[in-house]
Amino acid sequence: MPRTTPLSDIRNIGIIAHVDAGKTTTTERILYYTGRKHTIVDVHDTKDLKSSTTTDYLEQEQKRGITIQSAAVSTFWRKKKINVIDTPGHVDFTIEVNRSLRVLDGAVVVFDGVAGVEPQSETNWRLADNYGVPRMCYVNKMDRSGANFLRCVDMIKKRLGSRPLPVQLPIGSEDNFKGMIDLVEMQALVWDSDDKDAEPAKIDITADIADKLNITVPSDRAILAQIAKYRSELVDTCLEQDDAAMEAYLNDGTEPSADVLRKCLRKGTISGAFNPVLCGSSYKNKGVTQVLDAVVDYLPAPTDVAAIKTMDEDGNPVGERICSDDEPFSALAFKVINDAYGALTFCRVYSGVLTKGASVQNTTRGKREKIGRMVEMFAKEANAIEEARAGDIIALVSLAETETGDTLCDSANPVILERMRFPDPVISVSVKPKNKAEQEKFGAALGKMVRADPSLHLETDRETGQTILRGMGELHLEVTLDRMRTEFNVEGIMGQPQVAYRETFTKPISEQYIHKKQTGGSGQFAEVWITFEPLERGSGFIFEDETVGGSVPREYVPSVEKGLKMQKEDGVLAHYPTVDFKARLTDGSYHDVDSNALTFEIAAKACFREAIRKANPILLEPVMRVETVTPADYLGDVIGDINRRRGMIQEQLERGTNIAVVATVPLSEMFGYIGHLRGMTSGRASYTMEFSHYDPVPKMVADTVIAEAAKAKTAAA
């Protein structure tokens, strides 16, 4: 089957932004104006769960009014095929933006006209930088109170370190937002209503345009008074991309045509020389078709961007795979989801042709996969297709071996494509099924959720036996459990993981213990003399045999050590393991008939219990090395919060424009930290945490821990 859409006519783009900037609203309008939908559903109308926008179809998305899972839709505009991925804006779901940007050729970055560059805007922009994704900017919500286009452009320049280039200027703002000045065509686009089918009037630009359009606010009039200045900046910047046009302009003052400007804008956008900036109000149906025109005119086709790199097994670049149907087949699996169709593996085809029924190689895992159903996704709808070609974004149904980041390719021409980089989880909780009878079902569902989301990690705490789920934030983990309820019909309970406390000796002590039992027939006898000594933090447990003259037969010494190792795992304060001590077996005695390995093991256990009670035992707690990176504006708040958490500041380091605060903080004080940190820094700070050492627990805290342990043991009994 021949190619129906030329590669040069495909645009693979993402809509990225901070939460609530209007990504999903913009996507809804894109689908309406391109004819893929005949109605528009607004985000705030979905919380009753009776309707949903096209891309926010999960129950959790409808209830919260936010995007949680990126969704792919395809549409056509000016005979160009546009594959759009609507991504989340909440920091907990950055993984969705990460993996989407990895396979996209361009992005539309949406900004709130009032808030401008927000924390997640910065995060997403850096991700796009990492993957070298060309992008254009869309300043949305120009109808809202406080909207300021020029301030937003200035923030893009200063906070993102980019070169914003306005190709439009707003006509009015807030309630009086009427349209925009098109600096490429040099005409005004003015809407006389907010109706979704209203067409803008095209008006010539004159010196009295502000009066003509009844623009009265001084700041709005000031923008219109500078049309010539912004047009000149646009022309000068664009002509940097075209030497011939620049020469004609400098020599004889020839103004470049609109087509020449568009060609230059496209070249500069793709190379990253600048980022075109548009404006509008998606909710009021103004400016979305202009965004679509800009996507077609300025953002790259798959053939306009650099070929994807191929790697060796150690992740070192070894070559590249050109985006062409004539190359051998290769694709990158960038997302796995579980839905009504089974496991869906989303893939970006980078080269070659994939046909239904083909057998391909998963070079990442050394496995083979048989391609059954292939579908093109329209949000939650799956449309069956027979083949996929270079540049396509498709989903494969029920692949057994393939996970996020894996390469699928022609087995005769194996390659490993450049992989994705995933963030490390920053928070963990214990999880268990609400109904114990559903343990197996719960475990299987949890496994599928973790397979679908690489920013989720699953582990079992060997000491507490708890199942620990690690993720990007409390909302991330909460949504994961809620999705297990709706998608797998199994409910879970989320709690805090137990802190792995330790117990230890504080002074040396020598203890004698005689185990003697007579029950008729052969009895039980063993005597041990053991000296216990505290060691430095991190030393663990050391056992030494110092007996002489066979007071304890050699064959029974290992039993003494075994008894101590077993008993030290159940401390006397709160039943936590005892660490950092040395046990020296100095003497003992035995009975020819009544002594054996078991009696010496029992004697050692009892000797340990007696000794530690007399050695002033204390609780130790895990202390973490925490590095918090924050803008300088919030430094005082961050340090104050760390001090309140019993933290000790170690040092402060410069991290570009931010400051890194390095501290040691008890793990028990770190639960919920990410939420507090984001709250007091408007989400602009981040942190990493790793184990440092164990320290004694303050008495007041220790008393609480011991009381809770006793209560738990009583309840279990």
Automatic annotation (TrEMBL):
Q: Which GO terms describe its cellular component?
A: cytoplasm
The protein's GO terms of the molecular function aspect are:
GTP binding; GTPase activity; guanosine tetraphosphate binding; translation elongation factor activity
One GO-annotated biological process of the protein: ribosome disassembly
Where does this chain mainly localize? cytoplasm
Q: Which Pfam families match?
A: EF-G_D2 (PF22042), EFG_C (PF00679), EFG_III (PF14492), EFG_IV (PF03764), GTP_EFTU (PF00009)
List of residues binding GTP: 17-24, 86-90, 140-143
What keyword terms does UniProt attach to this protein?
Answer: Cytoplasm, Elongation factor, GTP-binding, Nucleotide-binding, Protein biosynthesis
Instruction: Work out whether the entry's keyword set contains Hydrolase.
Output: no
Q: Which domain of life is it from?
A: Bacteria
The UniProt record lists the Tr-type G domain at: 8-303
CDD domains listed in its UniProt record: EF-G (cd01886), EFG_III (cd16262), EFG_mtEFG1_IV (cd01434), EFG_mtEFG_C (cd03713), EFG_mtEFG_II (cd04088)
Q: Where in the cell is it found?
A: Cytoplasm
Query: What is this protein's function?
Result: Catalyzes the GTP-dependent ribosomal translocation step during translation elongation. During this step, the ribosome changes from the pre-translocational (PRE) to the post-translocational (POST) state as the newly formed A-site-bound peptidyl-tRNA and P-site-bound deacylated tRNA move to the P and E sites, respectively. Catalyzes the coordinated movement of the two tRNA molecules, the mRNA and conformational changes in the ribosome.
As for family, the record states: Belongs to the TRAFAC class translation factor GTPase superfamily. Classic translation factor GTPase family. EF-G/EF-2 subfamily.
The protein's name? Elongation factor G
Provide the species name: Povalibacter uvarum
